[in-house]
Design a protein that fits this description.
Number of helices of chain B: 11
Structural class of chain A: alpha/beta
Largest sheet of chain B: 2 strands, antiparallel
Number of strands of chain A: 10
Number of domains of chain A: 1
Oligomer: heterodimer
Largest interface: A-B, 23 and 17 residues
CATH architecture of chain A: 3-Layer(aba) Sandwich
CATH superfamily of chain A: P-loop containing nucleotide triphosphate hydrolases
Strand content of chain A: 25-35%
Mean pLDDT of chain A: 89
CATH architecture of chain B: Orthogonal Bundle
Chain lengths: 235, 283
Amino acid sequence: MLEIEDLSVAYGAVRALDGVGITVERGGITAVLGANGAGKTTLLRTISGLQPARGGRITWDGTELTGRAPDRIARGGVAHVPEGGGVITELTVDENLRLGALWRRDRADRAAARREMYELFPALEERSAKPASTLSGGERQMLAIGRALMSRPGLLLLDEPSLGLAPLITARIMGILRDLRASTGLTVVLVEQNAHSALSIADRGYVLALGRVVAVDTAAELLADDGLRHAYLGF
Amino acid sequence: MQDFFDLTLGGISAGAVYAALGLALVIIYRATRVVNFAQPALALISTYLAYSVTKATGSYWLGFAVAIVAGTVLGVATERLLVRPLRHRSELSSIIVTLGLLLVLQAVAGMIWSNEPLAFPYAFDFRGRFSANDLFVVLVVLAIAGLVLVLFKYTPLGLRMRAAAFAPEVARTLGVRVGLMLTAGWGLAAAVGSLAGLLATPPFLFPNVLDGVFVYALTAAVLGGLDNPLGTIAGGFVLGVGLSYVSGYFGPEMVTIAALAILVIVLTLRPSGLFGRAKVRRV
């Protein structure tokens, strides 16, 4: 279970997150929604340790994450896919994938994971020896997600995975996440501006505005609440 | 014709040394965008240590081994103690610190071992047009360069080091200990640099013995694209051979200006170096 209590993050004098509290059950898919600048990306970056918190606590699976170095958090089973994917363009597709699991000791499992990723994303297998710079936006997103899944994470943080992607590919990725949740109990925190696609696969959703949580409910309720949608989600 | 042949061979041997020291510079530059001006000084101290060990034990190879190990340790120490604390500030701070270290270490070497030239042995027989020693220099540099390239391209450690250099933040989220990778890079570069020092120093060792070599090594690295290990090695050999011809046909006093001319011409025609890739810097 992911527990975020009273989290505050600031960039100098600017409050990016103010007293944010979020709870995600194991195996849950939770959407974090809101307009640009609401603090969604900051939230994910603070969970994965890239951004220090000014106050509050983040606990995952009983272990406190606040104050830990990002590489240590990653080795604790937390995978973060940043906006745009964060694919390393100087490396090949295969190297990007392998990098995702290098910290794991079990070599056979690493090789098995790589095979699984190529099965999930055949387009990546075609280009496995090519530099990642030759991939299209959608392929890069797939590579980034594949790379994150290589380490068999318990918690997956996704920052706008559907940005710039064709709806068909987005649907495929969402389907893959649902399957993984069913088979491995993967917990997912999904940040999206495209609230509709996020809420269609999430169980629950939090809405952020100006660094604060302004609404939390099941996905179905959020979709149904017209007032909320108009005010914060733009549709 | 004999002259041409001799000049070529001599140039290849000299070029091997430029290539090795250039490689040491490029390994660090690639990882940190810092030119390690202290590299020749680290190599210098290592070579002086080799001198002392060889003098005390009578064994050249023991001194050789000590130099490589000492060089690695010095590289690691420099990164952790001097460069790492300044990484939060500008890259310029790191460069200035390495420059300062260069001056300090050269002075320290003079204080400990005196400024007088000391006789330093060749690894093998150095007599003849292309001596056994020349062959050793070329082979060893090619072997080390090959090993470094294999390390980077085919090993998990090399993959982590490249990831740490290209995209440190993303690498962290993938569990890579970026700081450790940078320290390893500095240690490796310093070891290669120490090797270059041992090969370049004979016949005499004195605090400024590596200055000229360092300038040509930097030139080789820039020619090769500063970012490109393979290009630097090629650049080193090309420069070595080219300058050998200049020295032979136009006189040794023309060598430094020829190096400058080569640098200017190559950079004018290909601003990213012979093999460099013009890259947009990640912000």
